[in-house]
Design a protein that fits this description.
Layout lengths: L2 E2 H5 L7 E4 L7 E2 L1 E4 L13 E5 L7 H15 L3 E5 L9 H10 L2 E5 L5 H50 L2 E5 L5 E5 L5 H13 L5 E6 L9 E11 L2 E10 L5 H18 L3 H20 L5 H7 L8 E7 L4 H14 L6 E3 L6 E6 L4 H7 L5 H5 L2 E4 L8 H10 L1
Helix pairs in contact: 2-3, 4-6, 7-8
């Protein structure tokens, strides 16, 4: 919620003027402090704007240069020089050093009290913080309504809009299951997965170069959080921001995490009803050649960023047991559950993500009795576009 030197210069009632360091006017200011010490850096943390009348600035050109160098090394955001108190203007050596080291040097006219500068900055920081909190509150309400109506995909969409970044849902293995925006940089998605796998049980924040949410490719931030309820893990939430996360960002990410956890923990009765509806939608799409809009949109949620692929399972003595086992395995893996029995002749159809391979397909039937597994034939088709479910199922039948 910091302000910049440029913003401060725009407050005409203060009468401030830029004397040097024009390249540094967009540096953020987090605090304003008045000091006449020759070396105030031991008491600074970085981000401050210093106000001084020049009494404590070391004499001579070398003294001015060392003074500015120490300030910039400490991360000071700007230097305000009170003209007309101890000196009529800032020393030329101080001006030259500010340009050399990239420190914004601002003239503070005699009629402007230092406390007025400090209060202007502090009041604006507080105003921005309050506005961010209010915006976060509104975004939380939108996110909650979206989660009720649209589930995880809608939650990710509102989190992405509210934070100005990209939101990703990952399974327990750190693989991206859903993302908003959908056309997300695969390289960054892999970095999100690596961070999630490295911090399975805790939140983490790490740097990344983000071209998807920032075409300039500036350094951004990855935030990952495990989605857990008690001892049950449901995967991870990842957010990629083109900046350092703010307090409001953390509030939104935490709220989205809670909504996703609630969705994963829905009562079994509701979960089973959802699975039956998903199966019905899958049968509708297949029977209509994939051309029923609402059903097709629902079924497309099975896709990951690489598309959708189908698994055909045949040969089991008890198709109901196969359906139940595959549904439970997909749910335990944190994946959308689209499984349908397609009749005795056809077998059982399950939709997987485009990145899922034979190992994952085998794991879906691992919960069946060994004798039942031995009877099964599994056909895994190639990845297809999310809307090409019928083609994906045909490829699985061929396999």
């Amino acid at each position: 919620m910091a302000v910049t030197v440029r913003w401060l210069l725009g407050q005409r009632d203060l009468g401030l003027g830029l004397r040097a360091g024009a390249a540094a006017v967009d540096v953020p200011i987090t605090f304003v402090i008045t000091t006449e010490l020759a070396d105030p850096t031991p008491w600074l943390t970085g981000g401050e704007m210093l106000l001084t009348t020049g009494i404590g600035i070391p004499p001579g050109d070398d003294g001015c240069r060392d003074y500015v160098r120490r300030l910039t090394d400490r991360g000071v955001s700007g230097l305000g020089f009170g003209v007309g108190v101890s000196r009529a203007s800032a020393p030329a050596a101080l001006v030259d050093a500010a340009d050399e080291f990239g420190l914004a040097l601002v003239d503070v006219p005699l009629p402007t009290p230092f406390v007025a500068v400090a209060r202007t900055v502090i009041d604006e920081i507080a105003r921005r913080a309050n506005a961010a909190q209010a915006a976060a509150g509104r975004a939380q309400q939108r996110m909650t309504r979206a989660a009720v109506a649209g589930g995880p995909s809608a939650t990710l969409r509102e989190l992405s809009v509210g934070s100005g970044g990209a939101a990703l849902l990952l399974d327990r293995g750190g693989r991206v299951v859903q993302a908003h925006p959908a056309e997300f940089d695969p390289a960054v998605a892999r970095e999100v997965g690596e961070q999630a796998r490295a911090h399975v049980a805790a939140s983490a924040v790490g740097p990344v170069t983000v071209r998807t949410v920032d075409p300039a490719g500036r350094r951004g931030t990855i935030v990952t959080q495990p989605i857990r309820v008690g001892d049950r893990g449901h995967g991870h939430l990842g957010v990629v921001l083109p900046r350092e996360p703010s307090a409001a960002d953390h509030v939104l990410i935490g709220h989205a995490n809670s909504l996703l956890a609630l969705d994963f923990e829905r009562p079994l009765r509701l979960r089973l009803a959802q699975w039956r509806m998903n199966a019905a939608a899958l049968r509708l799409v297949l029977s209509a050649g994939g051309d029923l809009d609402e059903a097709a949109q629902l079924v497309a949620e099975a896709a990951d960023p690489s598309g959708v692929r189908a698994l055909m399972i045949r040969g089991g003595a008890d198709p109901d047991a196969v359906v139940a086992a595959v549904r439970a395995a997909l749910h335990d893996a944190g994946r959308p559950v689209f499984v349908s029995e397609a009749g005795a002749a056809s077998g059982v159809i399950a939709l997987l993500g485009g990145d899922d391979g034979p190992g994952f397909a085998d794991a879906l039937v691992a919960g069946l009795a060994p004798g039942e597994r031995a009877r099964l034939q599994l056909g895994l088709g190639a990845p297809h576009a999310p809307h090409a479910v019928a083609e994906a199922v045909a490829a699985a039948e061929l396999a």
